[in-house]
Predict the structure.
Amino acid sequence: MGQNRDGHIYAKLTLRRSLGITLVNALIFALFIGAFITGLYVAVNRLFKSTEEIRTFTSVREAASAGARYAASMTNIPQNQICQQLFLDFKIAGRNEIGRTEVTLCRISDPQAIEGQEISGTSRDPVTVAASLKGGVFKIVSISRFPAGAASPNQQTARVEAVYVK
């Protein structure tokens, strides 16, 4: 009886089969761990609201000033436009309504005006429009409007105007 145990095919296949099952179990376990980490990432982002497109502010005025700061940080202004409009959505903390910030970024002079050189025409002159917009003086007007709700029956509006030199 003992002679047949050494050459038994079932005993040889058991080791290979257990290695395959271990590998499959490890892959399934890795998938569960990946799903858990993904769920944890989503939960933390929702908790801290760090990846939402709609930002939350404490007041309408704060939303308007944030719109002006965002416009000042823009570096890729199209060269063929004098004015550019941006629309940003926002929420007020503790309320479900969505407000809208309308930001207008207009170029009022080109870079030569800053250096003290004389220029002819205005910023609407075709020669000035063809100039590079990487510099100059910009006017930023940011208007935030928040709809009326149960907390305040009137629509809330805030306006921030700024002049920015790049």
Notes: The beta strands are 55-57, 83-92, 98-109, 137-146, 156-165. The longest helix spans residues 9-48. Residues 113-118, 122-133 have pLDDT under 50 and may be disordered.
